[in-house]
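Sorry to interrupt, but I need a hand with the structure work. Can you supply me with one protein entry, sequence and fold together? No commentary is needed, just the two lines. Leave the record below and I will have a look.
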Amino acid sequence: MIRVNAEHVKQVPGRQTDAKDCQWIAPPLQHGLLKASLVPPVPIRELPDLTRQRAQLIQERAAAVNRIQKVLEDADGKLAGVATDVLGASGRDMPEALIAGETDPAPSADLAGKRLREELPALRRASQGRVTGHHRFLLRVHPDHVTPLEELLGRLGARIEEALAPSAEAAGRLQAIPGVSQRVAEAVVAEIGTRMEQFPGADHLASWAGMCSGNNASAGQRRRGRITKGNRWRKRILVQAAWAASHTTGTYLAAPYRRLAKRRGCQRALVAVGHALLVIAYPVLKRGTTYAELGADFPDRLEPARLTRRLVKRLEALGPRVTLEPCPAA
């Protein structure tokens, strides 16, 4: 028994019932014309359940934190404008002071710790507001929702670390890629596995993950096409890593994002960077190599003549005629 990719089987029209589907599929299966779909081993099939559950809990926690922020905003408090994390070490203490009935902004702002104490004047202004009994009730309720979620996230993190122990070395090598954090590396290993022999090349891996542009060409013209279908969890974690990589400085992955975002938009640029991340991850996982940073100017160093033609064309578009002369050797 094999599992067949539905994308391949559904291309033949004219079948209306499951019985007709079985009659059509049986002869090609007997002659070996159907290609088996990828079925990861059991440990790799179990890991996505854990990482996806963790992603959903993170979403729930973010929603609960946003509700706390909404209550503070309704009370004319601007704590989020100063503190990055409303439920951080300092962010928890200041709402607790408001719940206890503290109305003076100075004592609650003095509860800030570490680097946040450098913003004490701004914190005092952000803590000013009109906190009523209704606000205090809500500020008691919402943290009671966040605390169980944080406990579940800790348990899931420990379980993921335990299940990922055989592939911990591969996940560690992935973290050398810009934009790939420990959590992203764990999700990538969970979604695509570590055995790359099942993919003939990096392009096949990107197509399987749904990070390739659609092939829509007719009469020698290439038209706009949607990306191929793939698992939404894989796309999500790759786009998340691409967004983090696009904000790095002087890296090979940040350069194509800035170049493509100008003319194709941010979303298409993120998909392109996510595709590049998969192409980089393929040899890292298959051959056990370590990522080596090439630099943001690597495409220019690879094809200097092309860069020269492009810059000359831009200069001539402004009006002057450009003549290039070879530089004498020093």
User: Anything to note?
Assistant: The first helix runs from residue 6 to 9. The longest strand covers residues 217-218.
